[in-house]
Amino acid sequence: MTRASQDLSVEIIGKKKNIAVVRLTRGKKRNALSDGLILAIRDAFQNLPASVRAAVLDGEGEHFCAGLDLSELKERDAGEGVHHSRMWHAALDALQYGPVPVVASLHGAVVGGGLELASAAHIRVADATTFYALPEGTRGIFVGGGGSVRIPKLIGVARMMDMMLTGRVYNAEDGERLGFAQYLAPEGQAFDKALDLAERIAGNAPLTNYALMHALPRIAEQPADHGFMTEALISAIAQAAPEAKQRVRDFLEGKAGTKVKKTPLK
Ligand code: 1HE
Q: Mean pLDDT across the stretch 92-116?
């Protein structure tokens, strides 16, 4: 395990030692995101070892993350405020558009900047204790970590508007139903589920994972005719990789474990 900062650890684990566990380790302060911690998150995702194929993002203690460290919220002028927000954008972009897919393991509070952080991950697994809120609205501030772009993509503008205007809190079950998390796990089991998913992801062809992370969200933003063209280019690049050809050959030769199974992944 390496310590990216006193509030963040990076550990390489997994059957093939190719999963990075990036963990917020500021449990005493409910993993509140100080400027130092935001920069450590950025550095961790920018400097993952080349052997890593997927990552799990976790938070120590009873809560995933209580959002912005409010003790650092001092009077900033408008220019400083812009730079602060852009620092968050750079860090969360390093996670979303980094080298490997990230599965967030959620529990307890996933609030404010904590929800912004979680929404930058590629998959979210929530345990039964998870709750989601955007207290910025009632604290007289606004989201600044990319939340106004990413959160409506998960739950829609109307629901985010309601959360910010009224302080509405969603529990784990409703959060999964609405789209905050793709998986719901029993209490205390989000990490194991997230690790299991990360292992599956790590087994994919790296170029396919890269194309999904970097092309899919951008294609979804493009006008349809641009999107179709980008898709054609990316799919041609992915299928040209030797690993892709081998995987198709394996299926055609009836090799074990290559068939799509009817059993759903819960
Ligand atoms: C904190 C923070 C924090 C806890 N900044 N120190 N986020 C919020 O508005 C959420 C604020 N936090 C809470 O509502 C609660 O702390 C929790 C529901 C998350 C957890 O409650 P609980 O009872 O388990 O813990 P606690 O007793 O409230 O907090 C434990 C300690 O963590 C305490 O410090 P201590 O020295 O007295 O022990 C708290 O002060 C500290 N703590 N949360 C600083 N957020 C890019 S813009 C993003 C804008 C936002 O994220 S705004 C939303 C901020």
A: 98
* 12 SS3 class: strand
At 177 the three-state DSSP class reads helix
- In sequence order, what are the beta bridge partners of 19? 13, 54
Element (H, E) at 119: helix 113-119
Q: How far apart are CA 143 and CA 116, in angstroms?
A: 8
Q: Which amino acid belongs to residue 107?
A: H
Residue 29 CA, closest ligand 1 atom number: 32
Domains of the chain: 2-202 (3.90.226.10), 206-252 (1.10.12.10)
Q: What is the mean pLDDT of residues 34-55?
A: 97
Site residues for ligand 1, CB cut-off 6 Å: 29-30, 32, 62-63, 66-71, 88, 109, 111-113, 135-136, 139, 143-145
Closest C-alpha to ligand 1, atom 40: 29
Protein residue with least CA distance to atom 37, ligand 1: 29
| Cα 144 to Cα 91: distance, rounded to the nearest angstrom | 12
Among protein residues, the one with the nearest Cα to ligand 1's atom 39 is: 29
How far, in Å, from the CA of 113 to the mean position of ligand 1? 11
Distances from the Cα of 157 to the Cα of 92, 106, 148, angstroms: 20, 22, 9
pLDDT band at 260 (very low <50, low <70, confident <90, very high): confident
For the whole prediction, is pTM greater than 0.85?
yes
Positions annotated as catalytic residues are 116, 136
Which residues lie closer than 8 Å to 79 by C-beta, 6 or more apart?
Answer: none
Task: Tell me which of 24, 26, 30, 65 to substitute to probe ligand 1's pocket, judged by most ligand atoms within 8 Å of the beta carbon.
Answer: 30
What type of residue is 117? L
| Among candidate residues 123, 137, 191, the one with its CA nearest the CA of residue 169 | 137
